[in-house]
Amino acid sequence: MRARPLDELTSRDLRPLLEEETGHWGQELLWDYADVSSAVAGGLDRKALTGSVLHDGLRAVAYCYYMLDGGRAIVGSIFAARGFRGRGFEEELLEDVLAEARAHPGNDRVECQTLFSTSASADASFARSGFKSRERHYLVRDLREEIPVPSHTFDLRPLRRDDMQAAAQIIHRSHQGSLDAALNLTYATPALCRGFVETLTLRGGCGRFDPDASFLAEGPRGPIGVLLASHLSRSNGHVCQVSVLAEEQAHGLGTVLVCSALASLRRQGLATVSLSVTVENRRAYCLYTRLGFRLRKRFAAHAWVRPPARIDLPS
To answer: Residues 56, 194: one domain?
Structure first.
């Protein structure tokens, strides 16, 4: 067994491992990972990814990588092939990657969400490296049961291309001071939120964007809520983002947005729908479980900043 830097390999060298990974996440997360895997392969060939690969003889059996994005490093997959999991290999690769990401010149922040990790103990590696962390859950709901949309007086309409800025503003304002914003730089500014919305809607950043199941809610003074939805596979839809302005919360708009998305996805013939939520976001978590979402996978969000900067997590 030997580890090699990722930049010594091409996508051809990792193809069998990437193909196994695609099948694994399809089973575990109901996620067609082929597009993500293709993006990883492209990043390998462009030398845009940094990380390590473990070889058993000539066979690549585990890998971990990070990519740089606007002054932060984002750790991607922590994946080992079947038969090589639970033996500490993912953790060894991860700790090497974290050390390299933190030492990278000009990089003052490292983030990771361990949804795409086959390691049962990756969280301990982040803790040893001084990361702030919070548990998240990947939830799935069966769509065979009809989803009634509660009667309401909200003004909902499908999201349009010219709504990108409004959606970004809602997402940014609704996350100010939140736990998710402390752990994810994406929510830090309106511009970063705009990039996030465009990644989801225009560049397939989380499956294939579904405009028919994505909604903008408007109030007397302008937009007050947004939901972005996608298809992760032919049978599984995904709620990528739900945001309601703080002053408009606790009036049922979140329920109406989610139920409207579920009803649309069901009409399209999808069998299930998934989403991710931070466990400590109790209002959102209770909403999703009340609407029939059930736990599929536990994972965590992790973030580190270079001292003397610090991450203060709201209680």
So the answer is: no
Are 66 and 124 members of one domain? yes
**Are 220 and 83 part of one and the same domain?**
no
Domain at 43, CATH number: 3.40.630.30
What is the C-alpha separation between 92 and 96, in angstroms, rounded?
6
Task: Count the neighbouring beta carbons within 10 Å of the beta carbon of residue 91.
Answer: 19
pLDDT tens digits, one per residue of 96-139: 999 999 998 889 999 999 999 999 999 999 999 999 999 999 99
Q: Answer whether 0.85 is exceeded by the pTM.
A: yes
Q: Are residues 150 and 286 in the same domain?
A: yes
Give the distance, in angstroms, between the CA of residue 157 and the centroid of all CA atoms in the same chain.
25
Tokens of 272: 């299930």
Which residues are CB-contacts of 287 (< 8 A; sequence separation ≥ 6)? 254, 255, 258
List beta partners, residue 136. Answer: 278, 299
| Helix or strand (DSSP H, E) at 17 | helix 11-29
Q: Residues 153, 284: one domain?
A: yes
Phi-psi region of 269 (alpha: psi -120 to 50; beta: other; left: phi over 0): left
Backbone angles phi, psi at 130, to 5 degrees: 85, 25
Q: Answer whether residue 228 is part of any domain.
A: yes
**Cβ(41)–Cβ(51) below 8 Å:** no
Total domain count, the chain:
2
Reduced to 3 states (helix: H, G, I; strand: E, B; else coil), residue 114 is helix
Structure tokens at 105: 């010149």
**Burial (0-12, 13-18, 19+ Cβ within 10 Å), 191:** exposed
244 and 102 in a common domain? no
Roughly what angle, to the nearest 10 degrees, separates helices 164-175 and 190-202? 130
Asked whether residue 103 falls in the same domain as residue 123, the answer is yes
Q: Which amino acid is at 170?
A: I
Per DSSP, 47 falls in state T
pLDDT tens figures, 40-64? 999 999 999 999 999 999 999 999 9
Domain span at residue 17 reads 2-130
Residue bearing tokens 């590696």:
125
